[in-house]
Amino acid sequence: MLKFDSLYNPSFSKRMTAYGKRGMVATSQPLAAQAGMDILKQGGNAIDAAIATAAALTVVEPTSNGIGGDAFAIVWVKGDIHGLNASGPSPNSISIEEVKKLGYKEMPEHGMLPVTIPGAPSAWKALNERFGKLSFEKMLQPAIDYAENGFPISPVVSQLWEEGYVTFSEKQGEEFKPWSETFAPEGRCPKAGEIWSSPHHASTLKSIAETKAASFYEGELADKIDQFSRQHGGFLRKEDLATYKPEWVDPIRVNYKGYDVWEIPPNGSGMIALMALNILDGFEVTDNGSVDTYHRQLEAMKLAYVDGLKYITEQGKMGVSTNELLSEAYAATRRSLIDEEALLPEPGDPLAGGTVYLAAADEEGNMISYIQSNFKGFGSGMVVPETGISLQNRGWSFSLDENHYNRLEPGKKTYHTIIPGFLSKDGSPVGPFGVMGGFMQPQGHVQVVMNMVDYHLNPQAALDAPRWKWVSGKTIEVEPHFPDHIAQALSRKGHQIVKRVDSLSFGRGQIIVRNPETGVLAGGSESRTDGLVLGW
Asked: Which superkingdom (predicted)?
């Protein structure tokens, strides 16, 4: 089991690790965490709690996720680990040629073109059918209540809502009007502490609950999505929705210092974290926060990331296999490139040599790591009128370069930034963890794992420790409280260190771990956001 050197958090946060015995829910929104805890207390298990929390998050944190987003999950049940990929492919009628005909040289960030098939509702249904104890309708009721009766806006959500308002209030075109009508009906975004409700969102959730998501993929909601897409030049059709199914997959892993670190296989980017840890596993870590350790972390992350950005796309279209990228031989090859000076990373050749995260656990030993996203902020800016369905812009990641592995193709899943993580040891679960935040996510996973495994920090301290983020080339961004003497020493090794004031850009995470001897759950929730961990 993980050994924590201290119960206290040595960093800037005043939060302490939370403990519980019968169950635990951790996520970025207190009201969503409470929704999951209420389900646990009504007899639900960890998976039930996760579904309720995820649905509630589409209401109380629409700045990061929505009904029209994607989802991934890693589930530990009765000694077995399961993966769920509920990311959706591109529409069957889209192609590089069709997009270029419209005058684009690269995939746009907003509008209907980057919208792929939303997978979140299918994830809720799939998890409920396979592992749930309570009815699907009961899972979605807390979210419906929040949308129907209203809830007070939290501070960070208010900040992110303002950023979204600035972005979409400047957009011209009829297709963006439903966003304003839904999220800024009074000509402004809601402020922290103000009550917000969304009757259309509530009605949509009721329809999804009553039909077990069939209305979204085959019925009246699918018709509305199809109509809106046709009206505004999109390629998404009802036929695309009707044929979509989420995929149950086998999670992939590497062993880091005796712990198995699990991620979802591509098209998810969790493999980047595994590649970096595979490289770092060959180094001895003897000092918490030494310059050499930071330097190696940065170099390993750069090498893993450039490989990921080159190769990761839908399984079977990568040009290399996950086994090749995660092999010990390839890790050794990449590790050999790390010297005393910062390098400009280049992809290797293994053949030659706006997101929300939640974690939940129950007294039966079930645990789940779950992540859900609209990609960036509110996503595409496309809101299906009178439904509250905010559509993601995941297709923005596609390349229009015919020679790129992640090139746009009909019915293809793109490179995906959202990744749930899980730790186990000697065949027993340690627990779920995750750090949301776009391209920060694999970097956050590596830092959190090392904080717990190498430095023996408790879950809250592991989350609160100062973070770094590789941006490009030799540029590394660090948080304001990142130690100055370390930043200066890294600069002398050739890294271009930039201190960034906005801590939200360094991710927002949650962790739950179980003591195998006592069954006691210990949890941490991100201090960079409005998060909360509830123990029972």
From this structure: Bacteria
